[in-house]
Design a protein that fits this description.
Number of helices: 10
Largest sheet: none
Radius of gyration: 20 Å
Strand content: under 5%
Number of strands: 0
Shape: globular
Order of helices and strands: HHHHHHHHHH
Oligomer: single chain
Structural class: mainly alpha
Amino acid sequence: MSDTSSSLPFSASCALRWPRRRAALRLLVATVGAAALPLSAQVRPALLTAINRTASLRALAQRQAKLYAQHFLSVQSPKAQELQAYTRQQIQAVFADVLPHPWPAEVVQALEQARSQCTQLDALLVRVPTKELVAQVSAQADKALEAAQQATLALEKQAPAPTARLVSLAGRLRWLSQRLAKNYYLLATGMDAKLLREQMAQDAVEFRQTLESLQKAPVATPAIRSQLELAQGQWVFFDAALQRPVDGRGLDAMSTASERMLEVMQQLAGAYEAALKEILG
């Protein structure tokens, strides 16, 4: 690059207005992504949407396990069942929208594996919950999460630049919040508290680190900055809910806090998708 282009501030400086930052980021994409797969202007936005939607499966699987545990514990059970049915529709819609695209064989294989794991999860969810089934659903939701992660990574490899990974990174906050909430409910079922609390502590650290990474990322539109501030504030409330005793009031509070957190994280991932479509388009 020339001296002028190499001096462009890609380190999240607040001194540049968004139009100038966008131009700088486009130059970065053109340079870093030069060796990536040749994607048309029409395919690039579709790919970013596919990454975001496939990444959302990670959170949706964990949400299903969370809601199933809620139903077992009689925590806002009618609402939990309603949300569970809606989440099932969301998962089915992801595969219906993403799979028909002419992806490379490795992407199709990863997506099919994710669909298989989600289908197996769905088969468990129709059964009347017991403590044993709650444990099985949780384990299967983790398998679905991992399969969705592999499908997301396969799609990311098709992206024209590494910046597209920010969509998936923002989406990580969705599934971390839902797994934290799921494990909070599993504590109430009497499962291994030591293991659950260890994972919750690790997930909380990862959540904070991911949020910090996004705050330092070079892509920062006004919408993204607004959503990051909202996410930071919502995390305070969510973390407070995680620290509450696992009793009736705590379980109710977690239901509200986790759903609100998911909504905010979904909006954040959407803001990154929109910004990157503009940059890469």
